[in-house]
Amino acid sequence: MTDDSPPRSAKWLWYDLHAFNLVNAWMQARKSIALDRVPEKAVLNVTADTSYRLFVNGKHVNRGPARGFQRSWPYDSVDIAPFLKKGNNVIAALVHSLGVGTFSYHPEGNAGFLLWGNAGGTDLTTDRSWKVRAAPGFLSTMTRVSLELNFQEIFDGRLDDGSWLEEGYDDTAWKTPMVRSAGCMPWPRFEKRGIPLLKEEVVLPQKILSTSKGPCTTDYRSHANVVRTYLQDERKWAKGRPRLELREGWAAVQFAPTGKDGYGASCIDFGKEVVGSLEMDIDGAEGTELVDTLVCEAADKATPIFQPITEGSRPAFGNRLNLGQGRTRHEQFDHWGFRYLVLVVRNSNVPLAIRMRLHAVEYPLDVK
């Protein structure tokens, strides 16, 4: 191990056996602490196999780690002091295990989340004092977004209690994690991230290019491939008349009721190629609606162009959000590159306003 390697007390956390049922598996982890004062600096070292999103007091701090191999697994160093406050604080992570090989990841049959460091003298190192659970809402769909990458994301907002990132949330029903010591196989050594942390900023779309509506294909609820479902709908695009409402860092799109087993769709133009993860905030739903999101890079007049999903690398970049009753707020875990976003609302009996924003990521380099 390097000089920055985890202490002996640091443990890899998982909600079950670290080597069991890992394909497209999701874990939530959290730890509550109380601080008498906010430190000037509080550096945490953090990593996961396969990947993580780190939050402090409900605010997103970082995503990682960088690509690497388990024999010398990469970790990130982040200063969480700007996110801390006097009194009670919550450190939380959403962790994803791919469990299969992609063009950017090689599995070694284990998953876990590992963190070490302190805040104002309070030890935050992952151990059995943390609380974990299998993340509710994430369904282990097995449809890949392409030959090279991972899976479509199917999230059921009816199963989620989204306040788990916040300080007042009751986690008494969560599990004590199963633990393995840092330095165990398949992660015998660690190395600090060799490239800068990604820079993130909010990017909003520019306009609605076109709209369409009609009946959903017959098996739209049960079909495992969101993009295949979209391609099987009866569809004709018309130049969009609705306007995006831009307010307080969000873009809002209005959708009229689709009726039972109907759909309404909008093709939304970001005006340029972007890379990021989409966040949506939807209120007033009955809990029967589905919202599909698909991305592509080109359009022919009013029609977004999707490559054949049965050819080449089998591109099928689409996710699905099952809306809960009332409000559902959710951010896509992975970041994608695209220009056009297609939003498809299905089976709605009430009008819906979908607020959205893209958390764009890029390397912190000056392009000249």
Descriptive notes:
With 368 residues, the protein is an all-beta fold. Helix content is 2%, strand content 47%. The chain contains one helix and 27 strands. Strands 11, 12, 15, 16, 17, 18, 19, 20, 21, 24, 25, 26 and 27 form a 13-stranded mixed beta sheet that branches. A hairpin with a 2-residue loop joins strand 18 and strand 19. It is globular and about 60 Å long. The model has no long low-confidence stretch (mean pLDDT 95).
Helix segment tally: 1
**Strands, count:** 27
Computed CA radius of gyration, to the nearest angstrom:
21 Å
- Multimeric status of the protein: single chain
Arithmetic mean of pLDDT: 95
* Inertia-based shape: globular
> Percent range for helical residues?
under 10%
- How much of the sequence lies in strands comes to over 45%
Order of helices and strands: EEEEEEEEEEEEEEEEHEEEEEEEEEEE
| Largest β sheet strand count, sense and barrel closure | 13 strands, mixed
Spans of 5+ residues with little confidence (pLDDT < 50)? none
Helix/strand/pairing category:
mainly beta
**Distance between the amino and carboxyl termini:** 38 Å
